[in-house]
Amino acid sequence: MKTRIALVASLAICVAGTASAADLLGTLKSQAGNFSMPQMDSSTMGNAAGVLQYCVKNNYLAGGDATAVKDKLMGMVSGQQPQQAGYASGAKGLLQGTDGKSFDLKSVSGQLKTKACDYVLKNAKSLV
Fold it and tell me: What residue stretch is flagged as signal peptide (predicted)?
């Protein structure tokens, strides 16, 4: 009788664990499925620089290459008010695109943040 109770309890724990794992997997798939990034071009250089700052500060990108690209972008947009406003938004983790879309890095998990930061770095390199 004790063996049966222990077996049923173990089975219940495994089923509950599987349900939690399935819920977690569903959440991750949902986040990944909604992972569409805004388009970037020269009009978003200030914002891209801010996002790179956010990514470096929060350890989603290593500082060397990302910081160099950010500094180049900032040199290109220095003194331009719209670009400076874009930088401020980007430094808070909000990527704003030319296509009217935005992407809040704070709304996704760590691995997706890293992918988003990689996306910004790759695209920012093409702007400098």
Answer: 1-21
